[in-house]
Amino acid sequence: MSNYYQKILEELVKFIKNKGGQASFEELLKWAEENDIGTITLSIALNDLIEEGIISAPEGFLEPEGILTAYPIPKTVEIAREIETIKEEVKGEVEAEELKEVEEIKREEAVKVEEEAEIIPIEEAEGKFEAIEVAEETSPETAEAELKPEVKHEAEKPIDLEEDLNKAIEYLNEYWSVGVIRFLEDLKLLGVSKPDAILKKLIDLGYVTYSPIGVVNATNKLPKIYRPKKLTEFI
Fold this sequence. Notes:
Layout: H1 3-18, E1 22-24, H2 25-34, H3 39-51, E2 55-56, E3 61-62, E4 73-74, E5 76-79, H4 81-93, H5 96-117, H6 129-136, H7 140-155, H8 161-174, E6 177-179, H9 180-189, H10 195-205, E7 208-210, E8 215-218
């Protein structure tokens, strides 16, 4: 699993937790759009998290019209209760000495935060660690705001769809059949701004087909790009 995709999974779980452990399809779609994540990648990420038991889809699935996805989208998702239960059980089994060390580390970190942020005077830090922890909690609005600067930065870059399309065509001349996740990640590495949009364009043009098992296949309509062969290729 690539670092890029792993980061998406982590941010997606964080988003759901910040929404109180539950999120609707509309909220998931809005989050994906704000973070420049395509609907195909979103559907694959949700499916992987469900298979791993990290989240569940209590209200079932839907297949939205006009949206390109690899799997049906959950109507709603929620953090699996079993995971939280296991965490509580493990926490309860930690020995008292280990808990004391953890609390001491937290107290030192809290005092450091107070010194930098001046939440309360240092001399009052003793006995007010609980108040500091509340101040450090991230609200759903703050969590979403932390992601927005990156999205804004991406939006400022000029997007040349024709150039991106040519990069995808050249790539498919080399790799005519490839998994969708690998395809989207490779386009990202090639500098393509919106890989999902380019994939949809390729499908609309009839240059590729997209199978239900998540494979992108080039068709005979794909423009051929010929390049001169190197001498080493004939040896």
